[in-house]
């Protein structure tokens, strides 16, 4: 199952990179958000730094929704999804491959966006970059798991583009809260330690188990 999932993830990732539609839209959105908030808060350094921490997570979540809208869309439009369902592989591999591809999209976007965010808001110092990176990676896993599960739920709906954000955003609110708390803690000003990171890891495990158990029925229907 793992080789099949990796193959599906590689194909999805390479195809989307060649098309450039999803990656370009995600990069443009998150870059525009960072720049707009930077100029809006440029007059207040203290409040701006704290607001920037929350802004990063809001930008990551809403940018992720743009990528999730394409989950299974290409396969469904070209009939490849039916072929995958008929292939002699575990259907969970289809879900794992899609989740891995979404994780890759988020990492690519953040590799570009986080340095820009850091330079614009924290010239004189900022949060612990290690804590922020770990929190982002754990959050990416959760967003990819939840988003792929929601995309499977909304797969056959006519209003899929509207239904998917409605399903995803309430489920990722805990991720945003934990991510913001972890980022505030990285400044050394908030109490919390590793609890937000532990929560993100637990959240990932819960939804990994949930999606693993339901992917067979969701993709089959």
The backbone outline, from C-alpha atoms, is globular
**Main structural class:** mainly alpha
C-alpha end-to-end distance: 20 Å
Number of strands: 0
Write the element-wise H/E pattern from the N-terminal end onward.
HHHHHHHHH
Task: Please give the domain count.
Answer: 1
Detail the poorly predicted runs: none
In short:
The protein is mainly α and 221 residues long.
Give descriptors for this structure.
83% helix, mainly alpha, 221 residues, 9 helices
Layout of strands and helices, then pairs:
Blueprint: H1 2-19, H2 21-40, H3 45-68, H4 73-78, H5 80-86, H6 91-121, H7 129-153, H8 160-186, H9 195-220
Helix pairs in contact: 1-6, 2-3, 2-6, 3-6, 3-7, 3-8, 6-7, 6-9, 7-8, 7-9, 8-9
What can you see in these coordinates?
The protein has nine helices and no strands. It is an all-alpha fold and 221 residues long. Helix 3 runs antiparallel to helix 8 and helix 7 runs antiparallel to helix 8. It starts with a helix and ends with a helix.
């Amino acid at each position: 199952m793992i080789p099949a999932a990796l193959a599906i993830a590689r194909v999805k990732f390479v195809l989307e990179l060649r098309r450039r539609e999803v990656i370009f839209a995600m990069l443009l959105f998150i870059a525009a958000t960072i720049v707009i908030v930077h100029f809006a808060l440029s007059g207040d350094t203290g409040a701006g730094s704290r607001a920037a921490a929350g802004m990063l997570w809001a930008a990551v979540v809403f940018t992720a929704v743009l990528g999730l809208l394409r989950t299974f869309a290409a396969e469904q439009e070209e009939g490849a999804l039916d072929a995958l369902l008929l292939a002699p592989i575990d259907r969970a591999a289809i879900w794992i491959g899609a989740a891995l591809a979404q994780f890759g999209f988020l990492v690519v976007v953040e590799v570009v966006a986080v340095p820009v965010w850091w330079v614009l808001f924290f010239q004189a110092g900022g949060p612990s970059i290690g804590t922020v990176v770990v929190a982002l990676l754990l959050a990416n896993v959760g967003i990819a798991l939840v988003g792929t599960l929601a995309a499977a739920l909304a797969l056959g709906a006519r209003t899929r583009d509207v239904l998917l954000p409605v399903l995803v955003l309430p489920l990722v609110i805990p991720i945003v809260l934990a991510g913001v708390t972890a980022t505030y803690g990285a400044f050394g000003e908030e109490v919390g330690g590793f609890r937000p990171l532990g929560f993100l890891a637990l959240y990932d495990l819960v939804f990994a188990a949930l999606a693993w158990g339901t992917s067979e029925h969701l993709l089959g229907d």
